[in-house]
Amino acid sequence: MTASRPRLELHSAVLDAPDARELAAFYRRLLGWETRQDEPDWVTLRAPGGGAGLSFQTESAYVRPVWPAGPGDPQMSVHLDIAVDDLAVAGAHAEAAGATLAGFQPQDDVRVYLDPAGHPFCLFLAE
Q: Which PANTHER family has this protein been placed in (predicted)?
């Protein structure tokens, strides 16, 4: 007997941070997304065109990941891939929003940045 699969829809990815509102403000500047929920320890952003969003939660025991991680370093558990038309222009925008270019860049056609809480995200050329 085959059971039918229930309706499942990805709502959002959640990033921990020392301050949910501060990290959400960075991604709001970076992506231009709208705030849908704003509580002291929880913020959700949504793209104006719909789709899955990003949520942020304050975690008092947050440990900043290390990129790239070495032995004994806190590992990144997730990163965001963001398609762009121009790496230089998008990179300048990311830095103006508060991102830091990572010291280690593993690919020529991708730029790794760190958000203010240390989460890596990649800008890559859209196909």
A: CONSERVED PROTEIN, HYPOTHETICAL FUSION PROTEIN
Strands 53-58 and 100-101: unpaired
- Cα separation, 45 vs 11, in Å, equals 11
Amino acid at 84: V
- Categorise residue 109: left if φ over 0, alpha if ψ from -120 to 50, beta otherwise: alpha
**Residue range 80-110, pLDDT digits in tens:** 999 999 999 999 999 999 999 999 999 999 9
Give residue 92's identity as a one-letter amino acid code: A
What tens digit of pLDDT does each residue of 15-52 get? 999 999 999 999 999 999 999 999 999 999 999 998 99
